[in-house]
Design goal:
The N and C termini lie far apart (64 Å). The protein is globular. It is an alpha/beta fold. Helix 4 (91-107) packs parallel to helix 5, helix 5 packs parallel to helix 6 and helix 10 (295-306) runs antiparallel to helix 11. It has eleven helices and seven strands. Helix 5 links the parallel strand 4 and strand 5 (164-168). Helix content is 49%, strand content 11%. The mean pLDDT is 91.
Length: 329
């Protein structure tokens, strides 16, 4: 038995027997966080290019992204794009998605759920001391615990149909960045959970993939409420914190003002990223991790790996390129 496990591991390591699985409208994919950004783009890609049946879960069904997704249904194929409400902070919302999925598969006997893509997430910029308890808990609860709750709810169904799980993590899960401590913690935990889940589910014929798409904060709405979040931090400062941090705080959030405001959905048109996602989704033996990054990220990631801690810290500050406390001294 151990020899068969070793042989299987060797084959996967060397990529023996890798092949593309053909997909069509009978293959169902559920993607979270489809209001904008990566989730919206993946939903459009799976519907238009891969011709799959897509369940696009949106936090706000009245958002522009949700409206555009609903418009994709045509008279010839009126039921290939399903747009459902999902709030990962609400267990009842997760249970409802599960019920809707069961009903969808029961109504369409030829459908098979192929993948769950855990993409939804929230982000808040600011030093750890600045962030409120609610902001910290929101990031951990949504990015990590909410993803776990949804996956656990859907896991028996995924196991029965041998669907795969694709968890969208972050470069912050590989190298934590300053001013993103709770976000990085949630993504690092999500990465470790993904690794454990991959091993647990292998005996059941299931694949679990860690997908790191690179930074596209300017093309998504993950930081759209940054200025409101900054105001909440400011209002919760003590007098001592105001005296100590105000100059740095104002410069820091002034620098990030460009991130605020909601952007139009489907701004991501990166063919290489979509190609990697297709392999993660449709290859018979997907890699455990897919990393999409520009050369700058790749160089920095290599330097982080080989450098001693003091140099890693200096490189991290250079990599972020944001104002630091030392800048105002």
């Amino acid at each position: 038995m151990r020899g068969s496990h070793l042989l299987r591991a060797l084959k996967r390591t060397l990529g023996w027997g890798r092949r593309q699985i053909q997909v069509d409208k009978h293959n169902v994919i559920l993607i979270t966080g489809c209001d904008s950004g990566l989730g919206h783009s993946l939903a459009v890609y799976c519907h238009n290019v891969l011709q799959m049946t897509v369940v696009s879960c949106c936090h706000n069904l009245q958002s522009e992204g949700a409206h555009l997704l609903r418009q994709m249904n045509s008279p010839k194929e009126p039921h290939r794009m399903h747009t459902w409400s999902l709030d990962l902070l609400q267990p009842a919302s997760i249970e409802l998605v599960h019920e809707q999925m069961l009903k969808l598969l029961e109504t369409n006997k030829d459908y098979q759920i192929m993948a769950l893509v855990n993409n939804a997430g929230v982000m808040c910029f600011g030093d750890f001391e600045w962030q409120t308890a609610e902001q910290i808990e929101m990031q951990i609860n949504c990015n990590l615990l909410g993803t776990m709750r949804l996956t656990r709810q859907l896991l028996p169904l995924l196991r029965r149909q041998r669907g795969r799980i694709i968890n969208v993590t972050s470069h912050c899960g590989l190298q934590a960045l300053p001013s993103l401590a709770p976000y990085a913690a949630s993504k690092a935990a999500l990465r470790s959970w993904t690794d454990a889940l991959r091993i647990e589910l292998q005996p059941h014929g299931m694949e679990v993939v860690n997908f790191i798409p690179g930074s596209f904060v300017m093309a998504s709405n993950i930081a759209a409420r940054q200025q409101q979040q900054a105001q909440q931090m400011r209002e919760n400062f003590t007098r001592e914190q105001h005296d100590y941090y105000d100059g740095y705080f104002e410069r820091f959030h002034g620098y990030l003002r460009i991130l605020s405001g909601f952007k139009a959905p489907n701004q991501l048109r990166d063919e290489e990223l979509l190609s990697k996602f297709k392999d993660a989704l449709t290859n018979s033996q997907p890699w455990a991790i897919y990393i999409h990054e520009p050369w700058r990220y790749r160089i920095y990631r290599y330097l982080f790996w080989i450098s001693p801690t003091p140099l890693v810290d200096w490189l991290t500050i250079r990599f972020c390129g944001m104002p630091t406390f030392e800048d105002i001294k």
